[in-house]
Amino acid sequence: MRILKANWYPPLNEELTRLFGSTVDFDIDPISTDPDYRLSNDRAASADGLINCSATHLLPADLDAFSNVKIVVREGVGYDNLDLEGWGARGIPVCNVPDYGTTEVADHALALMLALTRGTNTYDRLLNSDPVNGWSFSRAPLVRRLRGATFGVVGLGRIGLAAARRAAAFDMRVVFYDPHLSNGVELSTGYERVHSLNELMAISDILSLHAPRSAETIGMINAAALAAAKPGLILINTARGPIVDLDALYDAMRDGRVAGAGLDVLPAEPADRSQKLIAAWAANEPWIEGRLVLSPHAAFYSPDAMNDMQRKAVECILTYVNEGRLTNCVNREYLKTPLR
């Protein structure tokens, strides 16, 4: 069986070859910085299974070029860069790997919160630049007690729930907003539930985003939502960059309603310094000092998570092709032909 891994990021995971041996012939197509790059028709047609390794880049060929592909897998959780309807019209299931980095992303969300509320990033930077005068506990602007503070969660799925459990371990009050969950989830989790984003904004000291990118969520955290925020809010985003309107966040941080933000994901990646918020952060403008922490879309990452992600993507393909059993399908509603 030939599996094409498109938009692949180094390093090569040698464990895949060890695990699957001669069962699978991997064709690795590294991610390209050339926007006009296209995969050859011959290579596309030779694939039995297709994996898109990138969370943001589109496949480098038309769907019809993959004439022998039986299943497509997004090597990760998000799948908004795959044409679910187009593949479904061709009778091809699209799947994802939803369970590879749940704990890493939840850990990272809490780490961003702690970097701001315990001042660790600020202390480190000040001590590095001036070990004597930087030796001060009062220079980090957002240090606060977490016990009793309200941790708001947008999206109580796998990762949102994992983040909520961690926040609860800090003796925080956990409140969530998720219109897609049925009644009773609040009873089984013990967390409080609200039924509007503005209601959650108004009571949260920390707001952690764990929603997928969709037409519903793009720009969800906009000027109107931020205007409803409890003064002093800290915003954490380890989900998808376009969920947050960065210009609106800039304005809310400048006027002081939003105290700080920890962003692992951005609308444009790498960070676009033409954005007002990113420009202010890059220039170390005094007003933003200690109030914004960025990381490079790294919340998912650990060596173990990478191994799990790559292995589970291949297992998803093999399970379907060899056994007829489909796991984690995300385009069932579009499939033209019944699944096996």
UniProtKB/TrEMBL annotation:
It comes from the Bacteria. Residues 41-331 form the D-isomer specific 2-hydroxyacid dehydrogenase catalytic domain. The keyword Oxidoreductase applies. Residues 110-299 form the D-isomer specific 2-hydroxyacid dehydrogenase NAD-binding domain. Gene3D superfamilies: NAD(P)-binding Rossmann-like Domain (3.40.50.720). It holds the Pfam family 2-Hacid_dh_C. InterPro entries: CtBP, CTBP_dehydrogenase, D-isomer_2_OHA_DH_cat_dom, D-isomer_DH_CS, D-isomer_DH_NAD-bd, NAD(P)-bd_dom_sf. The keyword Cell division does not apply. Keywords: Oxidoreductase. Belongs to the D-isomer specific 2-hydroxyacid dehydrogenase family. PANTHER family: C-TERMINAL-BINDING PROTEIN (PTHR46029:SF7). This is C-terminal binding protein. It comes from Kaistia terrae. The lineage of its organism: Bacteria, Pseudomonadati, Pseudomonadota, Alphaproteobacteria, Hyphomicrobiales.
